Amino acid sequence: MTYEYEGRTEKEAIEKAAAELGLERDQFDVEIFEAQKNSLFKKGYVKIRVTPVDAPDASYAEHDNRMYEHASRIVADPLPQDEFEKQLLEFVVKIIEKMGYDVKANIVFRETQKIGIKLSSQSSSILIGRKGKNLDALQLLANIYAGRLGHEDMRIILDTENYRIRREETLVRLAYTTADKVHMSHNSILLEPMNPFERRLIHTTLNDIPDLDTKSEGDGLYKQVRVIYKGVR
């Protein structure tokens, strides 16, 4: 379901939407569909459409089922099974406590060369940060520490409040929405800066759609994906 809100600025409209829907900013997508700048005779305003990211969508049913199945995969014993896991959890908790926040860390899944850690904290929104950048930074530190413990091939996944799953859902919807816009306009669209995993998700989602191509642009860890129309104009 989509909702419409209006404010003097985009920020005000988004804050109004978050307050009325009782959602965090990363729990809904925003599209600006009308805007008016301040003028001598008229006050400026911004109108937005808001779509909660957990709203069901039949076109993504198969994808959503796969992600929820992954989310519900909880190991029988969330406690560390060996000295490596014990030191890893202690490291993650210590880093966050030094940031000034209380947290509990538990193992949520174990796979070949991959461990998932769930962070439980009253400050989850801060640990996530804007577009997950704080969580990405903590995850990077955890992976570096795992390497120092002799587990360079082990990938550590940090999550809290199921942010990773919600973010993945948002990006898949963004990919399909952008594809529709590119098909209609026959123009390319440059998306927001994303980390490597998020960019790969966009590329993979749109890989088999006819008349579209994608490429990453920019330098550093956070690059942008451009969705390009390559059909007949």
Provide a descriptive summary of the structure in words.
The chain is α+β, with helices and mostly antiparallel strands and 233 residues long. It is 40% helix and 24% strand. Strand 2 and strand 3 (45-52) form a beta hairpin. Mean pLDDT is 81; it is low at 54-74.
Write the layout of secondary structure elements.
Elements: E1 3-7, H1 10-21, E2 28-36, E3 45-52, H2 61-71, H3 83-98, E4 104-111, E5 114-120, H4 124-128, H5 133-148, E6 155-159, H6 163-185, E7 189-190, H7 196-206, E8 212-217, E9 224-229
Parallel strand pairs: 5-6
Antiparallel strand pairs: 1-3, 2-3, 4-5, 7-9, 8-9
What is the percentage of strand-forming residues?
15-25%
Number of helices: 7
SS elements, strand count? 9
Please state the structural category: alpha+beta
In the predicted model, the low-confidence regions spanning at least 5 consecutive residues are 54-74
Radius of gyration: 20 Å
Distance between the termini: 33 Å
Helix content: 40-55%
Main β-sheet: number of strands, strand sense, barrel status? 3 strands, antiparallel
Mean pLDDT: 81
Biggest sheet, spatial arrangement of strands: 1-3-2
Query: Which H/E pattern describes the elements?
Result: EHEEHHEEHHEHEHEE
Shape: globular
Keywords:
3-stranded mixed beta sheet, alpha+beta, 3-stranded antiparallel beta sheet, 233 residues
What is this structure, in a nutshell?
By secondary structure, the protein is of the alpha+beta class. The protein has seven helices and nine strands; from the N terminus they run E-H-E-E-H-H-E-E-H-H-E-H-E-H-E-E.
